[in-house]
Amino acid sequence: MTDPASINSNHVPGVRRMVAGPRGFYPTNPVQLRAKLDQMLGDVTPDIAALPLAIIVPHAGYSYSGPTAARAYALVRGAAFKRVVVLGPSHYERFPGAALLTADAYETPLGLCPVDHEFCRTLLATNTGWASVPRAEEQEHSVEMQIPFLQHVLAPGFKLVTALIHDYRPENCRRLADGLLRALQSDGAAPADTLIVASTDLYHGPGAALAMEVSRRTAQAVATGNPVEVATALESGEAQACGAGPILITLNTAAALTHHHPEILAVTTSHEVSPRSEDYVVGYLSAAIARS
């Protein structure tokens, strides 16, 4: 990471600049952002000792879902990874497979985070649907919301691999997971050097009680660790997740790397933060999958 005060990103080729921060999702002032992250993480007492292979976290504004996300990020505070693979849903663009970030670095108020282009090339070479779709990242916030957390909690030196998924069909997610697994196993580093982050919100719609009920059902399906069961629950409407693709890819990949099922850390809703209206409520999930 690079101190934003010491670099002019206009002179750095291929920087993916933030879009979520200026929209009010998190503070754009680095001092205020660090304080916000410290406050959210300070409220968490980690109850899992094992370092996760993967985490599932929400991507709404920090005032709404940040404390829920902090439940997972507290588990990796101070950890040193070679890379972090962040998978997020595409809210704006439609495309097959998965769209890898094409920039050289990701910019947030906390500095620049470099992209692991070598690993991206390995993913592309698997011919399993990983591709470059530059337009997909132009407005998208689902991945960006995770970067300040990662910059703040992890030891310096990690690189990013970020991808957006629009096609949530189980067969597409299985194919993408197969490519990710092959890339992890062919890489010079062990799979243990990588953290996988699935970015997703849950229920969207009216009703606080319904939001919590559906979100809990989604969490229960995720807790099985079975991507087929999760896909079935999502397809039937029993469960909801805008990041269905990231969840299914993560569960399929984790199934080949660990015998552990996801541990549910928190299920919350936006109504708990803003209870004035039930017209539109969003559900949030924080979960972690331990390493074997």
Written account of the structure:
The structure is a single chain. With 292 residues, the protein is α/β, with parallel strands linked by helices. It has a single domain (4-290), classed as 3-Layer(aba) Sandwich (Protocatechuate 4,5-dioxygenase, Chain B). Helix content is 34%, strand content 21%. The protein contains eight helices and twelve strands. The strands form two sheets. Strands 2, 3, 4, 7, 8, 9, 10, 11 and 12 form a nine-stranded mixed sheet that branches. A three-stranded mixed sheet has the order 1-5-6, with helices on one face. The radius of gyration is 17 Å and the shape is globular. Mean pLDDT is 92; it is low at 1-12.
